[in-house]
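Re: How this chain folds, sequence and tokenised backbone to follow
How to read it: Take the token row as a discrete description of the fold.
Start of record: The labelled sequence and token lines come straight after this line.
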Amino acid sequence: MAKNTKKHWYVYIVRCADKTLYTGIAKDVAKRIKAHNEQKGAKYTGTRTPVKLVYQGTAKDRSAATKREMQIKKLTRKEKLILIKMKRRKIK
């Protein structure tokens, strides 16, 4: 049996087809986005496909990822958009 080589959990935000934002956690973000777009992800995104990844952050473990997810979910839409914009600036 192969060992899981992914050490981190990730917190992500997707923009849904209706322009709403959804925040979640995953060990494999690409796989999770694919599941969302196949309507096998969260109930929320099932009727709002396609979704597009707009933010991704790293966490050391599931607990840290869940805590960060909850922090992000408490943000207003405007604050989430700022977070997304700031992350894009750092990447470029």
